[in-house]
Protein backbone atom coordinates (compact mmCIF):
# COMPACT_ATOMS: atom_id res chain seq x y z
CA UNK A 1 0.00 0.00 0.00
CA UNK A 2 2.85 2.39 0.87
CA UNK A 3 4.59 1.68 -2.46
CA UNK A 4 1.30 2.26 -4.29
CA UNK A 5 0.79 5.58 -2.49
CA UNK A 6 4.32 6.72 -3.37
CA UNK A 7 3.82 5.71 -6.98
CA UNK A 8 0.51 7.58 -7.12
CA UNK A 9 2.16 10.66 -5.62
CA UNK A 10 4.92 10.57 -8.24
CA UNK A 11 2.34 10.23 -11.03
CA UNK A 12 0.38 13.20 -9.68
CA UNK A 13 3.51 15.35 -9.44
CA UNK A 14 4.48 14.47 -12.99
CA UNK A 15 0.96 15.14 -14.19
CA UNK A 16 0.88 18.58 -12.61
CA UNK A 17 4.32 19.30 -14.06
CA UNK A 18 3.16 18.38 -17.56
CA UNK A 19 0.07 20.54 -17.14
CA UNK A 20 2.09 23.52 -15.96
CA UNK A 21 4.56 23.20 -18.81
CA UNK A 22 1.73 22.75 -21.33
CA UNK A 23 0.00 25.96 -20.30
CA UNK A 24 0.90 27.63 -23.59
CA UNK A 25 1.51 26.42 -27.15
CA UNK A 26 5.13 26.73 -28.26
CA UNK A 27 5.86 29.57 -30.64
CA UNK A 28 6.44 33.31 -30.87
CA UNK A 29 3.47 35.57 -30.25
CA UNK A 30 3.12 39.29 -30.86
CA UNK A 31 0.39 41.52 -29.46
CA UNK A 32 -0.46 45.15 -28.75
CA UNK A 33 -2.08 47.04 -25.94
CA UNK A 34 -4.95 49.47 -26.26
CA UNK A 35 -3.72 52.76 -27.69
CA UNK A 36 -3.96 55.97 -25.72
CA UNK A 37 -3.83 59.46 -27.22
CA UNK A 38 -0.06 59.38 -26.66
CA UNK A 39 1.23 55.85 -27.16
CA UNK A 40 0.72 52.14 -27.74
CA UNK A 41 2.73 49.23 -26.29
CA UNK A 42 3.94 46.05 -28.00
CA UNK A 43 5.05 42.65 -26.71
CA UNK A 44 6.74 39.69 -28.36
CA UNK A 45 6.49 36.57 -26.19
CA UNK A 46 8.57 33.44 -26.77
CA UNK A 47 7.10 30.12 -25.58
CA UNK A 48 9.20 26.95 -25.31
CA UNK A 49 8.05 23.69 -23.70
CA UNK A 50 4.83 25.46 -22.72
CA UNK A 51 6.67 28.14 -20.74
CA UNK A 52 7.43 31.83 -21.23
CA UNK A 53 11.18 31.99 -21.85
CA UNK A 54 11.60 35.59 -23.04
CA UNK A 55 9.62 38.76 -23.61
CA UNK A 56 10.56 41.76 -25.76
CA UNK A 57 8.75 45.04 -25.04
CA UNK A 58 8.55 48.14 -27.23
CA UNK A 59 6.55 51.35 -27.15
CA UNK A 60 5.41 53.71 -29.90
CA UNK A 61 4.40 57.37 -29.90
CA UNK A 62 1.14 58.91 -31.13
CA UNK A 63 2.90 59.29 -34.50
CA UNK A 64 3.40 55.50 -34.59
CA UNK A 65 7.17 55.92 -34.21
CA UNK A 66 9.11 53.69 -31.83
CA UNK A 67 10.40 55.46 -28.74
CA UNK A 68 14.16 55.71 -28.37
CA UNK A 69 14.88 55.15 -24.67
CA UNK A 70 18.29 56.78 -24.94
CA UNK A 71 16.66 60.14 -25.72
CA UNK A 72 13.12 59.76 -24.35
CA UNK A 73 12.59 62.37 -21.58
CA UNK A 74 10.84 60.00 -19.14
CA UNK A 75 13.38 57.35 -18.09
CA UNK A 76 10.78 55.50 -16.02
CA UNK A 77 9.07 54.33 -19.22
CA UNK A 78 12.38 52.96 -20.48
CA UNK A 79 12.88 51.23 -17.15
CA UNK A 80 9.51 49.52 -17.55
CA UNK A 81 10.43 48.34 -21.05
CA UNK A 82 13.76 46.96 -19.82
CA UNK A 83 12.65 45.29 -16.58
CA UNK A 84 9.08 44.03 -16.88
CA UNK A 85 10.00 41.29 -19.35
CA UNK A 86 11.97 39.41 -16.69
CA UNK A 87 9.01 39.59 -14.33
CA UNK A 88 6.72 38.07 -16.93
CA UNK A 89 9.16 35.19 -17.31
CA UNK A 90 9.52 34.74 -13.55
CA UNK A 91 5.76 34.85 -12.97
CA UNK A 92 4.89 32.79 -16.07
CA UNK A 93 1.95 35.12 -16.57
CA UNK A 94 1.02 38.67 -17.56
CA UNK A 95 1.83 39.81 -14.04
CA UNK A 96 4.39 42.49 -13.16
CA UNK A 97 4.88 45.41 -10.82
CA UNK A 98 3.87 48.86 -12.04
CA UNK A 99 6.94 51.06 -12.39
CA UNK A 100 6.48 54.30 -10.45
CA UNK A 101 6.26 57.18 -12.89
CA UNK A 102 5.40 54.87 -15.79
CA UNK A 103 1.91 53.62 -14.99
CA UNK A 104 0.65 53.95 -18.55
CA UNK A 105 3.63 52.14 -20.06
CA UNK A 106 3.54 49.40 -17.42
CA UNK A 107 -0.18 48.69 -17.76
CA UNK A 108 0.15 48.75 -21.55
CA UNK A 109 2.96 46.21 -21.48
CA UNK A 110 0.95 43.99 -19.14
CA UNK A 111 -2.07 44.14 -21.45
CA UNK A 112 0.05 43.42 -24.53
CA UNK A 113 1.59 40.35 -22.87
CA UNK A 114 -1.83 39.23 -21.69
CA UNK A 115 -3.11 39.35 -25.28
CA UNK A 116 -0.04 37.52 -26.55
CA UNK A 117 -0.68 34.76 -24.01
CA UNK A 118 -4.30 34.54 -25.12
CA UNK A 119 -2.97 33.87 -28.61
CA UNK A 120 -0.66 31.22 -27.14
CA UNK A 121 -3.44 29.54 -25.17
CA UNK A 122 -4.95 26.28 -26.41
CA UNK A 123 -8.29 27.79 -25.37
CA UNK A 124 -8.00 31.07 -27.27
CA UNK A 125 -11.32 32.40 -28.64
CA UNK A 126 -12.34 31.07 -32.03
CA UNK A 127 -15.55 33.06 -32.41
CA UNK A 128 -13.84 36.45 -32.74
CA UNK A 129 -11.32 37.85 -35.20
CA UNK A 130 -10.21 40.90 -33.19
CA UNK A 131 -9.66 41.89 -29.60
CA UNK A 132 -12.05 44.52 -28.31
CA UNK A 133 -10.19 47.77 -27.67
CA UNK A 134 -8.55 50.80 -29.24
CA UNK A 135 -5.77 50.21 -31.77
CA UNK A 136 -3.45 52.51 -33.72
CA UNK A 137 -2.37 52.15 -37.30
CA UNK A 138 -0.48 54.22 -39.86
CA UNK A 139 -0.49 54.59 -43.61
CA UNK A 140 2.40 54.68 -45.99
CA UNK A 141 4.04 58.04 -46.72
CA UNK A 142 2.50 60.21 -49.43
CA UNK A 143 4.55 61.84 -52.16
CA UNK A 144 4.38 65.12 -50.24
CA UNK A 145 5.96 63.47 -47.20
CA UNK A 146 3.02 63.19 -44.82
CA UNK A 147 1.27 60.08 -43.52
CA UNK A 148 -1.88 59.29 -41.60
CA UNK A 149 -2.26 57.79 -38.12
CA UNK A 150 -5.62 56.43 -37.03
CA UNK A 151 -7.22 55.16 -33.84
CA UNK A 152 -10.00 52.63 -34.24
CA UNK A 153 -12.20 51.32 -31.47
CA UNK A 154 -13.30 47.72 -32.01
CA UNK A 155 -16.25 46.01 -30.38
CA UNK A 156 -17.44 42.55 -31.42
CA UNK A 157 -15.34 42.68 -34.62
CA UNK A 158 -16.83 45.99 -35.73
CA UNK A 159 -15.33 49.47 -35.76
CA UNK A 160 -17.45 51.59 -33.45
CA UNK A 161 -15.29 54.73 -33.34
CA UNK A 162 -12.60 56.29 -35.51
CA UNK A 163 -10.27 59.26 -35.35
CA UNK A 164 -7.22 60.28 -37.37
CA UNK A 165 -4.39 62.76 -37.61
CA UNK A 166 -1.95 63.75 -40.33
CA UNK A 167 1.77 63.68 -39.52
CA UNK A 168 3.71 66.09 -41.71
CA UNK A 169 7.15 65.57 -43.25
CA UNK A 170 8.83 67.53 -40.45
CA UNK A 171 7.26 65.27 -37.82
CA UNK A 172 4.68 67.78 -36.64
CA UNK A 173 0.96 67.07 -36.52
CA UNK A 174 -1.17 69.15 -38.85
CA UNK A 175 -3.67 71.37 -37.08
CA UNK A 176 -7.18 70.23 -38.10
CA UNK A 177 -8.10 73.91 -38.53
CA UNK A 178 -5.73 73.97 -41.52
CA UNK A 179 -7.52 71.17 -43.37
CA UNK A 180 -10.10 73.39 -44.98
CA UNK A 181 -13.74 72.64 -45.62
CA UNK A 182 -13.51 70.00 -48.42
CA UNK A 183 -10.90 67.88 -46.61
CA UNK A 184 -12.76 68.11 -43.31
CA UNK A 185 -15.97 66.98 -45.04
CA UNK A 186 -14.08 64.06 -46.59
CA UNK A 187 -12.69 63.08 -43.18
CA UNK A 188 -16.17 63.04 -41.69
CA UNK A 189 -17.48 61.07 -44.67
CA UNK A 190 -14.71 58.50 -44.22
CA UNK A 191 -15.47 58.12 -40.51
CA UNK A 192 -19.16 57.55 -41.21
CA UNK A 193 -18.36 54.98 -43.90
CA UNK A 194 -15.76 53.26 -41.69
CA UNK A 195 -18.40 52.60 -39.05
CA UNK A 196 -20.72 51.01 -41.59
CA UNK A 197 -18.46 49.27 -44.10
CA UNK A 198 -16.29 46.18 -43.88
CA UNK A 199 -13.38 47.35 -41.68
CA UNK A 200 -10.58 48.80 -43.78
CA UNK A 201 -12.42 48.67 -47.10
CA UNK A 202 -14.24 51.98 -47.48
CA UNK A 203 -15.16 52.79 -51.08
CA UNK A 204 -13.37 55.76 -52.61
CA UNK A 205 -14.91 59.05 -51.52
CA UNK A 206 -15.49 61.40 -54.45
CA UNK A 207 -12.79 64.07 -54.57
CA UNK A 208 -10.77 62.38 -51.80
CA UNK A 209 -9.11 59.38 -53.41
CA UNK A 210 -5.80 59.85 -51.59
CA UNK A 211 -7.48 60.38 -48.23
CA UNK A 212 -9.57 57.24 -48.69
CA UNK A 213 -6.65 55.07 -49.75
CA UNK A 214 -4.36 56.27 -46.95
CA UNK A 215 -7.10 55.90 -44.35
CA UNK A 216 -7.89 52.36 -45.51
CA UNK A 217 -4.21 51.37 -45.27
CA UNK A 218 -3.94 52.85 -41.78
CA UNK A 219 -7.15 51.14 -40.64
CA UNK A 220 -5.96 47.77 -41.96
CA UNK A 221 -2.66 48.29 -40.15
CA UNK A 222 -4.57 48.92 -36.92
CA UNK A 223 -6.77 45.87 -37.53
CA UNK A 224 -3.65 43.76 -37.96
CA UNK A 225 -2.56 44.80 -34.47
CA UNK A 226 -5.97 43.83 -33.12
CA UNK A 227 -5.98 40.30 -34.57
CA UNK A 228 -6.49 37.37 -32.24
CA UNK A 229 -5.65 34.68 -34.78
CA UNK A 230 -2.14 35.84 -35.79
Task: Spell out the key features of this protein.
39% helix; 5 helices; globular; 230 residues; three-stranded antiparallel sheet; 6 strands
Description of the structure:
This protein is α+β, with helices and mostly antiparallel strands and 230 residues long. It contains five helices and six strands, in the order αβββααβββαα. The chain has helices spanning 2-21, 75-91, 103-120, 181-196, 209-226; strands at residues 27-32, 39-48, 51-61, 133-138, 147-155, 158-167. A hairpin with a 2-residue loop joins β5 and β6 (158-167). α2 (75-91) runs parallel beside α3. The longest helix has 20 residues, at 2-21. The protein starts with a helix and ends with a helix.
Question: How do you describe this structure in short?
Answer:
A hairpin with a 6-residue loop joins strand 1 and strand 2. The protein is 39% helix and 23% strand.
Largest sheet: 3 strands, antiparallel
What is the C-alpha radius of gyration, as a whole number of Å? 22 Å
Low-confidence stretches: 1-21
Order of helices and strands: HEEEHHEEEHH
**Shape descriptor:** globular
Distance between the termini: 51 Å
Major β-sheet strand ordering? 1-2-3
Average predicted confidence as pLDDT: 88
- Strand percentage lies at 15-25%
Number of H/I helices: 5
Structural class: alpha+beta
**Helix share of residues?**
25-40%
The tally of beta strands, per DSSP, is 6
Write the layout of secondary structure elements.
Elements: H1 2-21, E1 27-32, E2 39-48, E3 51-61, H2 75-91, H3 103-120, E4 133-138, E5 147-155, E6 158-167, H4 181-196, H5 209-226
Helix pairs in contact: 2-3
Amino acid sequence: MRKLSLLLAVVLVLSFSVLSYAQYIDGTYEAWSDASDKSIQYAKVFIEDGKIVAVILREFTDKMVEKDWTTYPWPEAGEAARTLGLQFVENQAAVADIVTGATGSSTGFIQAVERALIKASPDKPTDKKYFDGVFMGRSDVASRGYYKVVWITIKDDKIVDFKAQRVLADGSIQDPAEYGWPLEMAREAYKEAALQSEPGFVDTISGATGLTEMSNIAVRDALDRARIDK
